[in-house]
Each structure stands twice: as C-alpha cells, then as structure tokens.
C-alpha cells in the first residue's frame, strides 16, 4: 500500500497507525517528528505531477484544507482520492476510522479509542463562557459557523460568539471583536502564530488563552491529549 496525504492531521494519524505506507506528504505535515517521506508542496498548492510520479494507491485529502481543482487533477491522472469532511468531533472520529481502514490499518487504534473516551466526558463544571477565536490578523479573521475547532471549544464549555455567522472564517475588524464583549479570547498558535506578545494586547482587559493550534484544530493522535491540554489553557486564562 502506497499513500500520499494532503492533510497534516491525517498524515500523523496514518504514520503512527500504519507505519511505512506513507510515501508522500505536504510541506506542512510536521508530525510525527522525523517523518521521512517525499514532500509534495502545500495543502493549497500540491505538486500534482510529483504526486502522480509516486504512484500512490490512495491520496487522502480534506474538503476544507485542499482545493477541488487539485483533487480533480489527481483523479484525472487515474489516482484514487479519498476526501474527508470534518466539522465536529464525532465526525472526526468517523472519518479517521474510514481513512485508517482505507490505508490497511485498524479502524480503532489505541490512540483513537483513548480520544473517544476523553471526548465522551461532559463539559467541565463551572458554567459556560463566551469567546472570540481569532485565527489570523492583518486582517483579523475568526472562527465562524460550522467548524471543528468551534465544536471542540463547545465541548469544553466555551461558546464562540460568531458560531452563527454566515461565513465559516469571517473577517471582522478588531474593534467589533472587542465590542462583542467576550468573556475570553482564545488565541491559537496556528495558522497565525499568536503569542503572549502578539495578540493579547489587542484585547485589553479581556482574559486571553494561548492554546496549541494542533490541539484545537488537528484531528488525529493529538485528540487523545487535546481535551486535557486545552482545558488547562482555558482555565489558566482566568487565574
């Protein structure tokens, strides 16, 4: 079995579950550390000819992270392309099982079983909080409707204020974000790398939680530890 992954989350999931089947991955596939495969460009600009030359039995992709014209070009070259859709935690578990099965691995490896148990727990006690969740600045962009990261936060007792927005990742001026009056601002370190010195200063007087973007947005082995890590970061913002 030869597999090319166009999605960092799925790259990690396949690499740790079915060692040896991955022959290609994007430049953004940073996990697991030391992954030794051919790099085929970015998620939005994969090198189709290089992928075809690898002669994969399967290319795994995601409807949000990858562009349909690139996927169509791969299909036109005769390659099998499996496209995932992940908008919430339960769907992530189902899609991960489907991908791993298609790659010849177990549909429920130990890390996935542990992740399912972790996310089956109810939200933490202490009441719900509201948040804005920037994912970019210059211009400011935030989580909007129907996102995996939004569902992750909701399961931790945090309701982001743009969940009903018409767009999934709307651009909203920072003044409007402040005026929304959130209890909390959640600042991940990807895709934009928010840090203690870059992000919180835009929201004076509002608690800011600096969180791992991998734990907030990736659906893979990180899900087994994401709940505890994110809950810790969210609680630390209110100390």
Could you explain how this protein is built, in words?
The longest helix is centred in the middle third of the chain and has 14 residues. The protein folds into two domains: 106 residues, Rossmann fold (3-Layer(aba) Sandwich), CATH 3.40.50.1980; 108 residues, Nitrogenase molybdenum iron protein domain (Rossmann fold, 3-Layer(aba) Sandwich), CATH 3.40.50.1980. A hairpin with a 4-residue loop joins strand 7 and strand 8. The radius of gyration is 18 Å and the shape is globular. The N and C termini lie far apart (50 Å). Strands 3-2-1-4-5 form a five-stranded parallel beta sheet, sandwiched between helices. The model has no long low-confidence stretch (mean pLDDT 95). Helix content is 34%, strand content 16%. It contains nine helices and eleven strands. It is of the alpha/beta class.
SSE blueprint and pairings:
Blueprint: E1 3-5, H1 8-17, E2 22-25, E3 38-39, H2 48-53, E4 58-62, H3 68-76, E5 81-84, H4 89-102, H5 110-119, E6 129-132, E7 134-136, E8 141-142, H6 148-154, E9 158-160, H7 174-179, E10 184-188, E11 208-211, H8 213-217, H9 223-236
Parallel strand pairs: 1-2, 1-4, 2-3, 4-5, 6-9, 6-10, 10-11
Antiparallel strand pairs: 7-8
């Amino acid at each position: 079995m030869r597999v090319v992954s166009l999605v960092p989350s799925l790259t990690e999931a396949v690499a740790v579950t079915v060692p040896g089947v991955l022959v290609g991955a994007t430049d953004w596939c940073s996990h697991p550390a030391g992954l030794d495969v051919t790099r085929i460009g970015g998620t939005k600009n994969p090198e189709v000819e290089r992928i075809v030359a690898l002669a994969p039995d399967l290319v795994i992709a995601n409807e949000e992270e990858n562009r349909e014209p690139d996927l169509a070009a791969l299909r036109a070259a005769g390659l099998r392309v499996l496209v995932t859709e992940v908008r919430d935690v339960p769907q992530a578990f189902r899609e991960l099982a489907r991908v791993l099965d298609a790659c010849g691995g177990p549909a429920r490896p130990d890390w996935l079983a542990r992740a399912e148990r972790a996310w089956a727990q109810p939200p933490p006690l202490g009441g719900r909080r509201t948040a804005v969740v920037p994912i970019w600045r210059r211009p400011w962009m935030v989580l909007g409707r129907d996102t995996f990261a939004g569902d992750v936060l909701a399961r931790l007792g945090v309701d982001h204020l743009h969940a009903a927005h018409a767009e999934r990742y709307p651009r909203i001026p920072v003044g409007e974000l402040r005026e929304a009056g959130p209890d909390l601002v959640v600042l991940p370190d990807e895709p934009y790398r928010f840090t203690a010195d870059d992000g919180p200063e835009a929201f004076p007087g509002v608690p800011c939680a600096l969180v791992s973007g991998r734990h907030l947005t990736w659906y893979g082995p990180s899900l087994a530890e994401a709940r505890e890590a994110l809950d810790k970061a969210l609680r630390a913002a209110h100390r």
